[in-house]
């Protein structure tokens, strides 16, 4: 097992800072795993989901206990998400790792451009 390097520390710090701002550090985690650790794109996204799920479950429990969830909205969205996961899994069985990487890169660039250039709505 190799030691912790500078890139490892920077990835943790950057992900924590981005996550603390509410922007989601998962994108940084995927970039780090694919570019620095040479992990395949699909495996990187799987690891990202493994990090996300415990946080999501904890948040749902806390918000539900506080009565802050609108179940008439949450349940249809959860069902749609489950259908999306199933469809995505079937789709990914026929997509190359390279195509997935390029698609993810385009998504990250588009999200970044949207964040930088979006206009705030007037109050």
UniProtKB/TrEMBL annotation:
The keyword Membrane applies. Keywords: Cell membrane, Membrane, Transmembrane, Transmembrane helix. The chain crosses the membrane at residues 12-35, 47-64, 73-92, 98-117. GO terms for cellular component: plasma membrane. It is found in: Cell membrane; Membrane. It is a multi-pass membrane protein. InterPro entries: TM_pro_TauE-like, TSUP/Inactive_protease-like. It comes from the Bacteria. Belongs to the 4-toluene sulfonate uptake permease (TSUP) (TC 2.A.102) family. PANTHER family: MEMBRANE TRANSPORTER PROTEIN MJ0441-RELATED, MEMBRANE TRANSPORTER PROTEIN YJNA-RELATED. This is Probable membrane transporter protein. It comes from Candidatus Fimenecus excrementigallinarum.
């Amino acid at each position: 097992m190799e030691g912790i390097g500078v890139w490892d520390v920077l990835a943790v710090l950057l992900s924590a800072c981005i996550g603390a701002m509410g922007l989601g550090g998962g994108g940084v985690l995927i970039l780090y795993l694919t570019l620095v650790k040479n992990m395949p794109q699909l495996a990187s996204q799987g690891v990202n989901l493994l990090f996300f799920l415990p946080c999501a479950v904890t948040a749902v429990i806390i918000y539900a206990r506080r009565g802050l969830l609108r179940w008439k909205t949450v349940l249809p969205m959860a069902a749609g998400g489950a259908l999306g996961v199933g469809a995505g899994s079937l789709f990914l069985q026929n997509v190359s790792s390279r195509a997935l990487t390029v698609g993810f890169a385009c998504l990250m660039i588009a999200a970044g451009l949207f964040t930088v250039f979006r206009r705030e709505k007037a109050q």
